[in-house]
Structure formats: C-alpha cells, structure tokens
C-alpha cells in the first residue's frame, strides 16, 4: 500500500484506524506453502489470536487455511466465519474440562497440554481423536512473555513426563492422532527450531496411530528497515527433508502442520493516528497522538519497535520525537525516534500492526476501540466500525434502586 491510499482511508473512515492489506496476507500464505512444497501433506492453520476479525478469517479460509484456536470463543468465531469443524484446531491452556467438553461437542480437533485433563478426558472420551502438546524444553522467542517452550513454561506436557503420558494413554485406550509443540514467537535461529523438531520426532515414536505432527510457528518477521527475519525458505528446505525421512521411519505419510499468526498478518497491518499536539519540554519533543496503549499495547508490553512514518509529510526534514499516547499514565510508542518533521494534524503510520495489535486493544480510560479496514483490490472495505458511546454502555446495568443517603 502507498501513503496516499492510507491518507485517503484515514479521511474516509476516521482515525485512529487499523488497515490490513489483503494482498500481503495472501502472499505470505503462498510463501509459506511454497517453502514446504516438498512435503506431500502440508496444512496451515492460522493462529487467529493474532487478529480475529471475521473478514480476515474468511479471507484465509478462501486460500485453504485451517484455524488454530485457543478458546471456545475463537472456535465459535471460526465456525461463524464458515470453517468446517475438522479444519479447526483447539489448543487451550489452563481451561476447565467443561470447556473442552463443550468444544469437543462442536467436532473440532482437541489438543491437550496437561496430564490431569488428559487423563480425565481420556477416561470419559477414549474414542475421541486427541492431539497432545509437548513442551520440548527449548528456550526460543524474542521476549520472555512469548517464549513458551522452556522448562519453566506453563504450556505443554514436559517431554520428560513422556513415560507418565504414555501410561495414561495405554490405561485409557485414548486415540492419539497428533503431537504438537510451540517453542515461542520471533524465532530467528532455524537450528533451534530444527533441534526442537528432533525432540518432537522422538516423542512421536511412542504413538502408533498418528496422523499429523504440528510444529507450531513463531517465525520472526521484520519490524524495521533492514531488520532480520526467519529464513522460511531455508527452514522449509531442511525441515521438509527431515520430515519426509521421519515419515519413512515411522512407516506412514503424516501431515505436517504449522500454525502461523504473526507471519501471515503482521506486515499486512497499518495503524493510523492523528497528531493532537507537538509538545517541547526542556529535553524532549513529544508528538502526542489520538491513541494510546489501549489501541496498541505491544511497545509498552513487549518493548516492541514499530516503524513510524509521518505519511502527511514523508519527505520533510527528519527530527527526533518521542511519540506518546493520550492515556493517563506513561504511554510511549517510541523514544527519540527520527521521523519526518511532525506538525499538529499530521497522520502517523505505525507499520507491522497486523498481529497482536487490535486483538489486544481495550477500552482503558473508557476510550473507544478503533475501526478496521481491509484493503482489497484497490479499495478499502470497512470490516469493523468505530465504537460509540452506546458500545461502552452495552452490558452495563445501572443500579435498580435509589442509592440510600448516609
């Protein structure tokens, strides 16, 4: 997308505004598919927690994607978007047996990540096809909050607990059809990924009726100019060869599954916000925008860096600005960042705003959530309207009686 398109959308739909480029999502999906084209049975399940707008789900469904879900609500959204139950994987963490039973009744693929629930579920539903999430004890990922395969992680069943796991499966006569792992997000070193894959292959040898191996995702995408990223093509070449060899060892052609989220939608996203005020202090020039971490929390939560452009004056002289929001506490998007000279009323564009941005938005400070637009075939399509005051009041119930005076 070009700056003129984004400016036109900001004028048409207002700001703050999330914009997603459909063509970029499609090209990322095709890139991953091509990288693993040597695998006969490949399946891509979009990790919808990254961006769960129904229109985005429908776009990926048309490309052949399945879904990776982590809650019953995500399962329901997937079904609402038209996905067949068998195309939806459900990988929760720390949920009740009751929720898993509700999801099971919907006919989707269950993925269990702890021994307690595994034994309870297997005892009640021994014939239901189940996938097991293994914790490979591999430290990977760009931030402690998104590294989920290490020894202290709450996710998955420890690979060292395999004997206990196998005993539960044998005692309950469960139908184990898949093994799954996910080490973390922003994985750059493909050797770490391949090392974890070997752990998954070893674990898989304990189960004789497998249909698939799910390697999760966590591929790193570039967040700034000349940033490094996961070499998907190199990973595809190496992992495909090893996976095909394992299938021969196993004696059966299995399906290789990935569950990318950020990889598919991050670079497709743009977040547009207007500059309310340019404020000079004794040491800093602040550009205060009409948004805050209620709309884009990643810089404050993860320390992530989103490239910021002044698309109103892209060729202006660069100056140093700290870009901050309007939330009533420290609310910083960038410190002393070089940006083309900013004036009040300019539109700033935050890049890589497709993943874990709107999906983590809130109504903190009672601010409205922004609209979402899908840019497709040269046009902007509104896929979520700006919230209104009525949305804030929805589900709130005033006191039914007069408050007594004290």
Automatic annotation (TrEMBL):
<dbReference type="Pfam" id="PF02784">
    <property type="entry name" value="Orn_Arg_deC_N"/>
</dbReference>
<dbReference type="InterPro" id="IPR029066">
    <property type="entry name" value="PLP-binding_barrel"/>
</dbReference>
<dbReference type="InterPro" id="IPR022644">
    <property type="entry name" value="De-COase2_N"/>
</dbReference>
<dbReference type="InterPro" id="IPR022653">
    <property type="entry name" value="De-COase2_pyr-phos_BS"/>
</dbReference>
<dbReference type="InterPro" id="IPR022643">
    <property type="entry name" value="De-COase2_C"/>
</dbReference>
<dbReference type="InterPro" id="IPR000183">
    <property type="entry name" value="Orn/DAP/Arg_de-COase"/>
</dbReference>
<comment type="function">
    <text>Specifically catalyzes the decarboxylation of meso-diaminopimelate (meso-DAP) to L-lysine.</text>
</comment>
<keyword id="KW-0663">Pyridoxal phosphate</keyword>
<dbReference type="InterPro" id="IPR002986">
    <property type="entry name" value="DAP_deCOOHase_LysA"/>
</dbReference>
<feature type="binding site">
    <location>
        <position position="218"/>
    </location>
    <ligand>
        <name>pyridoxal 5'-phosphate</name>
    </ligand>
</feature>
<keyword id="KW-0028">Amino-acid biosynthesis</keyword>
<comment type="subunit">
    <text>Homodimer.</text>
</comment>
<feature type="domain" description="Orn/DAP/Arg decarboxylase 2 C-terminal">
    <location>
        <begin position="18"/>
        <end position="354"/>
    </location>
</feature>
<feature type="binding site">
    <location>
        <position position="329"/>
    </location>
    <ligand>
        <name>substrate</name>
    </ligand>
</feature>
<dbReference type="GO" id="GO:0009089">
    <property type="term" value="P:lysine biosynthetic process via diaminopimelate"/>
</dbReference>
<feature type="active site" description="Proton donor">
    <location>
        <position position="328"/>
    </location>
</feature>
<feature type="binding site">
    <location>
        <position position="302"/>
    </location>
    <ligand>
        <name>substrate</name>
    </ligand>
</feature>
<feature type="domain" description="Orn/DAP/Arg decarboxylase 2 N-terminal">
    <location>
        <begin position="23"/>
        <end position="266"/>
    </location>
</feature>
<keyword id="KW-0210">Decarboxylase</keyword>
<dbReference type="GO" id="GO:0008836">
    <property type="term" value="F:diaminopimelate decarboxylase activity"/>
</dbReference>
<dbReference type="InterPro" id="IPR009006">
    <property type="entry name" value="Ala_racemase/Decarboxylase_C"/>
</dbReference>
<comment type="similarity">
    <text>Belongs to the Orn/Lys/Arg decarboxylase class-II family. LysA subfamily.</text>
</comment>
<feature type="binding site">
    <location>
        <position position="298"/>
    </location>
    <ligand>
        <name>substrate</name>
    </ligand>
</feature>
<protein>
    <recommendedName>
        <fullName>Diaminopimelate decarboxylase</fullName>
        <ecNumber>4.1.1.20</ecNumber>
    </recommendedName>
</protein>
<keyword id="KW-0457">Lysine biosynthesis</keyword>
<keyword id="KW-0456">Lyase</keyword>
<comment type="pathway">
    <text>Amino-acid biosynthesis; L-lysine biosynthesis via DAP pathway; L-lysine from DL-2,6-diaminopimelate: step 1/1.</text>
</comment>
<feature type="binding site">
    <location>
        <position position="356"/>
    </location>
    <ligand>
        <name>pyridoxal 5'-phosphate</name>
    </ligand>
</feature>
<feature type="modified residue" description="N6-(pyridoxal phosphate)lysine">
    <location>
        <position position="49"/>
    </location>
</feature>
<feature type="binding site">
    <location>
        <position position="356"/>
    </location>
    <ligand>
        <name>substrate</name>
    </ligand>
</feature>
<dbReference type="Pfam" id="PF00278">
    <property type="entry name" value="Orn_DAP_Arg_deC"/>
</dbReference>
<dbReference type="GO" id="GO:0030170">
    <property type="term" value="F:pyridoxal phosphate binding"/>
</dbReference>
